[in-house]
């Protein structure tokens, strides 16, 4: 941390201190040097905030960008901070997409829903396609079957619909399965089968 004689403080890296000549006590800095310190301090703060968010949960670049733009920073500063995090390997949409795709399939979301959620998080189409394909391959090797996954989430949801009239239960269960990304024909068939099989 660097404190100027006027009380302003900046948190910057050693390289920036060295570049601006701010490594010695009592050195007079030009307005240009102070502006550079202020810019770098803002970028450092943005990177710290992004790292805090990443420590709490997986985030895509777009999610972090939206969060950081709420701060008193320019889009260029946010872009620079995120570029530096990507270059260091700390931020990766590819890693987030692969982890999210696997986790969502295991939770019972249909591949279509997984794709939709990743696109909503700002992941590009190519990365989404690759991540979901890879997750499906891994899940298939572990015995994943979309019909069985649909049935499992339908059976779990149907337990909460026991006290509901059959036609209402079917409508609610069908809506639930559709929101999870299952195709209409499959969702309708599984909803009927599951509800008919309940005691």
Structural class: mainly alpha
Helix coverage percent of residues? 55-70%
Shape: elongated
Number of helices: 10
What string gives the helices and strands in order?
Answer: EEHHHHHHHHHH
Describe the structure.
The chain folds into three domains: 2-88, Arc Repressor Mutant, subunit A (Orthogonal Bundle), CATH 1.10.10.10; 93-141; 146-197. Strands 1-2 form a two-stranded antiparallel ribbon. The chain has helices spanning 14-20, 31-56, 61-68, 75-88, 93-107, 111-120, 125-141, 146-158, 166-179, 184-197, and strands spanning 2-3, 9-10. It is mainly α and 199 residues long. It contains ten helices and two strands; from the N terminus they run E-E-H-H-H-H-H-H-H-H-H-H. The termini are far apart.
Core attributes:
199 residues, mainly alpha, Arc Repressor Mutant, subunit A, 3 domains, two-stranded antiparallel sheet, 10 helices, 2 strands, elongated
């Amino acid at each position: 941390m660097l404190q100027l004689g006027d009380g302003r403080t900046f948190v910057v890296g050693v390289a920036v201190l060295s570049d601006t000549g701010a490594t010695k006590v009592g050195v007079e800095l030009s307005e240009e040097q102070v502006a550079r310190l202020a810019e770098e301090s803002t970028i450092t703060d943005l990177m710290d905030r992004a790292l805090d968010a990443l420590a709490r949960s997986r985030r895509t670049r777009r999610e972090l960008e939206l969060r950081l733009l709420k701060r008193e920073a320019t889009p260029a500063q946010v872009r620079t901070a995120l570029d530096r995090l990507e270059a260091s390997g700390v931020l990766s949409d590819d890693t987030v997409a692969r982890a999210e795709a696997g986790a969502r399939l295991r939770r019972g979301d249909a591949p279509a829903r997984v794709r939709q959620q990743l696109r909503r998080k700002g992941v590009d189409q190519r990365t989404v396609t690759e991540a979901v394909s890879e997750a499906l391959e891994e899940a298939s090797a572990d015995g994943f079957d979309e019909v069985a996954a649909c049935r499992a989430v339908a059976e779990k949801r149907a337990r909460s619909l026991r006290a509901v009239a059959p036609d209402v239960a079917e409508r609610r269960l069908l809506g639930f399965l559709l929101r999870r990304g299952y195709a209409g024909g499959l969702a309708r068939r599984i909803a009927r089968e599951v509800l008919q099989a309940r005691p």
